[in-house]
Amino acid sequence: MTPRKPRLDGKVAVVTGAGTQSDVAGTGQATAVLLAREGAKVLLADRSAENAGRTLAVIEEEGGTASVFAGDVTRSADCRVMAETAADRYGGLHILFNNVGLSYPGTVVDVREEHWDEIMAVNLKAMMLASRFAIPLMMDSGGGSIINVASIDGFRSGWSYNVAYETSKGGVIALTINMAVQHGRDGIRVNCIAPGHLHGSFTAGLSDAHRELRWRSTPLGTEGTAWDVAHAAVFLAGDESRWITGITLPVDAGSSIALPLSVLPRDEGGILPDAKSARY
Fold first, then answer.
1. Would you say residue 30 lies in a domain?
2. Distance of CA 93 to the CA centre of its chain
3. Between the CA atoms of 215, 120, 114 and 167, what dihedral angle is there, to the nearest 10 degrees?
């Protein structure tokens, strides 16, 4: 039997937020590792070269090809250099995984204005800027795939009163749709992944009890990890999804289709009512 060719052989990818601060993989690190395993050459973009270096070490240990780019994706100049570095270093650009994110609590009444502005810059503006400079290079490379990371809280209200974060993630979904329509004829597919409350580097400080509360509130009743998002990203990056654009793919154990308490058995606090006849 002929060995399977890596799905992304010959492709060049940029992953933003590709570093990690802990031993638990975040979505950027996990996605970068899987892209490299599938044959892509990966530019690991992160504000911290040290954090990106941890991801680089994993990829190089597995025999993959990657390098580090230290920059701030909220800055136009950095995004331009990031895209050009990937194309110059590896001979083109085919995949962009827009992954950076930030959150501060607050409702519209009490969220600090500087926090609102920072969240919009990191969570939304950065994706626009990275895409702005990636798309022309993708066109020169024969087309490409952009994957934006939103959240299920981008199309529903979460429980933590993070109005700025949730609004920014709704903006990511709208940005994805518009980019998909406006650049489809340029050979660019644009899709969005909406993770649920998975466990990754950004939740490494949560207690076991808090983690259990999160996964027990899902229909599947299991805990997700950054690798679940990464597998979805590899699918959207490759030719298997060649006829898919403009979608938002929840990776959430079904969280977005059920109220949290409705998925628990009645003897564990669930609120599903007894079945009975009804007419509407």
1. yes
2. 18
3. -50
- For tokens 């570093």, the residue is 19
1 domain-assigned: no
pLDDT at position 271:
46
Give the Cα separation of 191 and 235 in Å (integer).
11
Angle, helix 27-37 to helix 226-237, in steps of 10 degrees = 50
For residue 85, the one-letter residue type is T
In a domain, residue 205? The reply is yes
Q: What is the pLDDT of residues 101-124, one digit of tens each?
A: 999 999 999 999 999 999 999 999
Range of the domain at 25: 12-268
Each residue's pLDDT tens digit, 170-194: 999 999 999 999 999 999 999 999 9
- Residue 104 is among the residues annotated as catalytic for this protein: no
Is 258 within a domain? yes
Looking at the structure of the chain, the number of domains it has is 1
The CA distance from 5 to 55, in Å, is: 24
Q: What is the model's pTM?
A: 0.91
pLDDT tens figures, 218-263: 888 888 999 999 999 999 999 999 999 999 999 998 888 886 655 5
**CATH number assigned to the domain comprising residue 41:** 3.40.50.720
Say which of 90, 104, 161, 165 is annotated catalytic: 165
- Average pLDDT for 122-129: 99
pLDDT tens digit sequence for 45-62: 999 999 999 999 999 999
Pure H helices in 121-242: 126-140, 163-183, 208-216, 226-237
Q: The tokens of 106 are what?
A: 């607050």
User: CA 100, 106, 109, 110: dihedral to nearest 10 degrees?
Assistant: -110
Q: Are 100 and 123 in contact (CB under 8 A)?
A: yes
Phi, psi for residue 189 in degrees, rounded to 5:
-100, 140
